[in-house]
Amino acid sequence: MKCQSSAETRIGIIGAGRVGTALSLALTGAGMEITGVMSRSRASADRLIELAGLDSSARCDSPSEVFERCEILFISVGDDAIEQVARQIVDGFSSGSEAPVSSGAAPAIDPSAAGQTPRVAAHLSGALGSSVLSPLRRLGASVASLHPVKSFSEDPRASADLTGTVATIEGDAPAVETLERLAGTLGMKAVRLKSDQKPLYHAAACIASNYMVTLFALSLAVMESCGMEEAIARAALSQLVRGTAQNLTDRPPGRALTGPIARGDVRTIRGHLEALKSHENRSAESVYRMLGLETVDLAEQSGRVPPETAGELRAVLSGGRFAALRVQE
Questions:
Q1: Are residues 55 and 27 in contact, defined by beta-carbon separation less than 8 angstroms?
Q2: What percent of the chain has pLDDT over 70?
Q3: Per the count of CB atoms within 10 A, which of 134, 172, 229, 235 is most buried?
Q4: What's the N-to-C CA distance of the chain in angstroms?
Q5: Count of domains in the chain?
Q6: Distances (CA, A) of 206 to 126, 200, 210, 291
Q7: Is 202 domain-assigned?
Q8: Same domain for 148 and 233
């Protein structure tokens, strides 16, 4: 199955949240045709259709109708709902109650048709493997998962440019090959992943993205407690984070590391810990100690601090009530 032109590939989207809508804009921007859209919220589906410049006839009333209209199906719903959507598609066909297909729809699937290129059905979850879509194999589909390693904003237009985005792909060989070509068309860098690696891979992505937001919020609260206005504190920290992100883009983490631990400033770390003891959010001190110990490891492994200084830093960061929380290696 080729992905080079809208005439060759018809795409269906189930789920019109941040990712599904942004992906739809990317697909239509690359000249591909979206022939079916469905979402739990009709308003969300209508918004996607409007933003992507689709005809209102693209709106579908059931998952099986979307599936029947397309050659490549993307399921962009919450992780817990993916398998349910797959079963709804199968049930729609087995009951014979699926919505009628418009004259422009893809031909109906006949799994017994010799030599027929299977439809591709993919979900966009980072944590789950393609096996949750196994029921769709009964309809002759080749199943996979595609996960863009990207933080999608509330404005899908701001997230629709996927150029340079790494996309992890796993699943049935025909689906993987199709999605690799499609990813290339959208300017993404496709990376194959084993299905059983996805939970660990996704945990890594959550640490880097989701937990960075949590750390930012914690930093913001601590800075505001010093008397700084929220808007000014957020601007200051945002600039700091942008600089850090650029450093990480340009060099490995060990070389991008700055601050007192990278300099071996034991006295400064003691001062930080003493100050944090009086902060109203007591978890701030524990988070500081835990991440500080990880940072000492990074600084020592990258040659930023000598072993003796690293030992001093660990002793300071492991002290007091936090010592019992340190995971021993």
A1: no
A2: 88
A3: 172
A4: 49
A5: 2
A6: 10, 10, 5, 16
A7: no
A8: no
pLDDT tens per residue across span 151-196:
999 999 999 999 999 999 999 999 999 999 999 999 999 999 999 9
Same domain, 49 and 100: yes
Same domain assignment for residues 188 and 227: no
Instruction: Report the amino acid identity of residue 71.
Output: E
What's the mean pLDDT in 93-100?
Answer: 59
Show which of 175, 197, 219 is a domain's final residue: 197
Q: Do the beta carbons of residue 35 and residue 70 sit within 8 Å?
A: yes
To which H or E segment does residue 182 belong? helix 173-185
156 burial level (CB within 10 Å; 0-12, 13-18, 19+) = buried
Q: What's the pLDDT band for 93 if we cut at 50, 70, 90?
A: confident
List the domain range (segments joined by +) for residue 263: 208-325
- The helix or strand, by DSSP H or E, that contains position 38, with its residue range, turns out to be strand 33-38
Entry pTM: 0.85
